[in-house]
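re: ur question from earlier - yeah i can do the single chain one, its not a big deal. heres the input i used so u can compare w yours
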Amino acid sequence: MLNRAVLIIKYKQPAVDWINQVDPYDSSKMTLKSANEESSVYLIDQDAADSPESLRSWIELNLEALFIDELNGWYTEESLWPTDLNVELFNRWFTIECHTVITDTVGTPIVDDGI
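and the output i got, formated as C-alpha coordinates:
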Protein backbone atom coordinates (compact mmCIF):
# COMPACT_ATOMS: atom_id res chain seq x y z
CA MET A 1 0.00 0.00 0.00
CA LEU A 2 1.10 3.53 -0.72
CA ASN A 3 1.29 6.23 1.93
CA ARG A 4 -0.93 8.45 -0.17
CA ALA A 5 -4.61 9.13 -0.66
CA VAL A 6 -6.31 9.65 -3.99
CA LEU A 7 -8.38 12.72 -4.72
CA ILE A 8 -10.70 12.37 -7.73
CA ILE A 9 -12.43 15.40 -9.22
CA LYS A 10 -15.80 14.87 -10.92
CA TYR A 11 -17.63 17.57 -12.84
CA LYS A 12 -21.06 18.92 -11.99
CA GLN A 13 -23.43 20.42 -14.55
CA PRO A 14 -22.40 24.09 -13.96
CA ALA A 15 -18.80 23.24 -14.98
CA VAL A 16 -20.05 21.48 -18.10
CA ASP A 17 -22.21 24.50 -18.90
CA TRP A 18 -19.09 26.70 -18.68
CA ILE A 19 -17.12 24.31 -20.94
CA ASN A 20 -19.83 24.57 -23.58
CA GLN A 21 -20.44 28.31 -23.16
CA VAL A 22 -16.85 29.44 -23.66
CA ASP A 23 -15.91 26.90 -26.34
CA PRO A 24 -14.07 29.08 -28.89
CA TYR A 25 -14.50 26.45 -31.59
CA ASP A 26 -18.23 25.89 -31.02
CA SER A 27 -17.59 22.17 -31.23
CA SER A 28 -20.09 19.52 -30.24
CA LYS A 29 -21.65 20.10 -26.87
CA MET A 30 -20.09 18.33 -23.90
CA THR A 31 -22.40 16.34 -21.64
CA LEU A 32 -22.01 15.67 -17.95
CA LYS A 33 -21.46 12.00 -18.73
CA SER A 34 -18.76 12.67 -21.32
CA ALA A 35 -17.01 15.24 -19.10
CA ASN A 36 -16.68 12.58 -16.38
CA GLU A 37 -15.52 9.70 -18.59
CA GLU A 38 -11.92 10.51 -17.60
CA SER A 39 -11.40 12.08 -14.20
CA SER A 40 -8.41 13.90 -12.80
CA VAL A 41 -6.77 11.86 -10.07
CA TYR A 42 -4.37 13.45 -7.61
CA LEU A 43 -2.13 11.66 -5.14
CA ILE A 44 -2.20 13.60 -1.89
CA ASP A 45 -0.65 13.16 1.54
CA GLN A 46 -2.57 10.52 3.46
CA ASP A 47 -2.77 12.84 6.47
CA ALA A 48 -4.84 15.26 4.39
CA ALA A 49 -7.53 12.59 4.13
CA ASP A 50 -7.73 11.77 7.84
CA SER A 51 -11.03 13.57 8.25
CA PRO A 52 -13.50 15.61 6.22
CA GLU A 53 -12.13 18.73 7.91
CA SER A 54 -8.50 18.00 7.03
CA LEU A 55 -9.49 17.17 3.44
CA ARG A 56 -11.45 20.42 3.18
CA SER A 57 -8.44 22.34 4.52
CA TRP A 58 -6.11 20.64 2.02
CA ILE A 59 -8.45 21.50 -0.86
CA GLU A 60 -8.68 25.13 0.25
CA LEU A 61 -4.88 25.37 0.51
CA ASN A 62 -4.47 23.85 -2.96
CA LEU A 63 -7.59 25.33 -4.53
CA GLU A 64 -5.87 27.56 -7.09
CA ALA A 65 -3.58 24.79 -8.36
CA LEU A 66 -6.46 22.31 -8.63
CA PHE A 67 -8.71 24.84 -10.36
CA ILE A 68 -6.00 25.89 -12.82
CA ASP A 69 -5.18 22.29 -13.63
CA GLU A 70 -8.84 21.51 -14.37
CA LEU A 71 -9.44 24.67 -16.42
CA ASN A 72 -6.21 24.21 -18.34
CA GLY A 73 -7.34 20.71 -19.25
CA TRP A 74 -10.16 22.26 -21.27
CA TYR A 75 -8.85 25.61 -22.45
CA THR A 76 -5.31 26.93 -22.14
CA GLU A 77 -6.45 30.48 -22.98
CA GLU A 78 -6.78 32.04 -19.52
CA SER A 79 -9.06 34.81 -20.78
CA LEU A 80 -11.77 32.14 -21.08
CA TRP A 81 -11.46 31.18 -17.42
CA PRO A 82 -13.62 32.58 -14.61
CA THR A 83 -11.90 35.52 -12.96
CA ASP A 84 -12.69 34.55 -9.37
CA LEU A 85 -11.46 31.03 -8.64
CA ASN A 86 -12.89 30.64 -5.16
CA VAL A 87 -14.02 27.74 -3.00
CA GLU A 88 -17.71 28.48 -3.60
CA LEU A 89 -17.28 28.16 -7.37
CA PHE A 90 -15.13 25.07 -6.93
CA ASN A 91 -17.87 23.44 -4.85
CA ARG A 92 -20.54 24.37 -7.41
CA TRP A 93 -18.49 22.93 -10.27
CA PHE A 94 -16.90 19.81 -8.79
CA THR A 95 -17.55 16.80 -6.61
CA ILE A 96 -14.60 15.33 -4.75
CA GLU A 97 -14.01 11.68 -4.05
CA CYS A 98 -11.22 10.67 -1.72
CA HIS A 99 -9.84 7.17 -1.26
CA THR A 100 -7.19 6.20 1.26
CA VAL A 101 -6.47 2.58 0.39
CA ILE A 102 -4.06 2.52 -2.57
CA THR A 103 -2.20 -0.61 -3.52
CA ASP A 104 0.57 -0.53 -6.11
CA THR A 105 0.27 -3.76 -8.08
CA VAL A 106 2.96 -2.98 -10.67
CA GLY A 107 6.07 -3.70 -8.60
CA THR A 108 8.32 -1.17 -10.30
CA PRO A 109 9.26 2.32 -9.11
CA ILE A 110 6.79 5.13 -9.71
CA VAL A 111 8.41 7.58 -12.12
CA ASP A 112 7.35 11.18 -12.68
CA ASP A 113 7.35 11.75 -16.44
CA GLY A 114 7.81 15.48 -15.92
CA ILE A 115 4.39 16.62 -17.06
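The longest strand covers residues 4-11. not sure if urs matches, ping me
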